[in-house]
Automatic annotation (TrEMBL):
Belongs to the bacterial sugar transferase family. This is Sugar transferase. InterPro entries: Bact_transf. The keyword Transferase applies. One of its GO terms (molecular function) is phosphotransferase activity, for other substituted phosphate groups. Keywords: Transferase. It comes from Haloechinothrix aidingensis. Residues 1-174 form the Bacterial sugar transferase domain.
Length: 221
């Protein structure tokens, strides 16, 4: 799915990326792309491209909860709100650097320190352009502050869930609402991509999500 659908989406998105880049370059009078590095599959380093929506004076690894992540203008704020600034990441999917769906690529520990078990468990699969956290109610928090989204995907993910997440991502980019974990439909819940035993082995047992906390009336934080 990543190779075929990822290639199609990357090709389709390229004209929109170039148009947005031209608009941003004219408005901001600077190179419209920037890159930094994230932790990828098995702890590998992934160069992460984005459209520039923040001032060049903003630290490359500024955290959104630190008050430094302020879009340059309303147009940039719109791009960030709809995640259109992240479209260049689709170019990494056919190269198998990212997956279409997966955990959100985390910044290096020097800038975004997290529990080692959380960091290592989520790297057992390829990181994604989108995922449960990106379409979730709590995406304004840092990803490690709401680990249930990542671990729900690791434990109960499926191709059906991937397709549902892609659909919800499209709706959100068009102005649709975010979701709670309890909104994941039962038909999308699968056997998962990583076994519970493997998650325990890497020291992430504390983050396991009980099955009854998703696709039901229960909550998990």
């Amino acid at each position: 799915m990543d190779l075929v659908l990822g290639t199609v989406l990357a090709v389709l998105a390229t004209p929109a990326i170039l148009v947005l880049a031209a608009v941003l370059g004219a408005r901001m009078r600077q190179w419209p792309f920037f890159r930094h590095y994230r932790i990828g599959h098995n702890g590998s380093t992934v160069m992460f491209p984005k459209l520039r929506t923040l001032s060049k004076r903003t630290a490359p690894y500024a955290l959104k909860n630190g008050g430094e992540v302020i879009p340059v203008d309303r147009f940039c704020a719109f791009l960030r709100r709809r995640h259109l600034d992240e479209l260049p990441q689709l170019w990494l999917v056919p190269l198998f650097k990212l997956s279409l769906v997966g955990p959100r690529p985390k910044m290096p520990d020097a800038w975004e320190p997290t529990h080692p078990g959380y960091r290592d468990a989520r790297c057992l699969v390829r990181q994604g352009c989108t995922g449960l956290w990106q379409i979730g109610h709590e995406r304004d928090h840092l990803v490690h502050e709401r680990p249930a989204y990542d671990f729900c995907y690791l434990q109960y993910g499926s191709v059906r869930m991937d397709l549902w997440i892609l659909w919800r991502t499209l709706l959100m980019m068009l102005g649709g609402s975010t979701i709670a974990l309890q909104s994941v439909p039962r038909w999308a819940v699968g056997r998962g991509w990583v076994s519970e035993m493997h998650i325990r082995v890497v020291g992430a047992a504390r983050f396991l999500v009980p099955r009854h906390d998703i696709a039901s009336g229960g909550g998990h934080r």
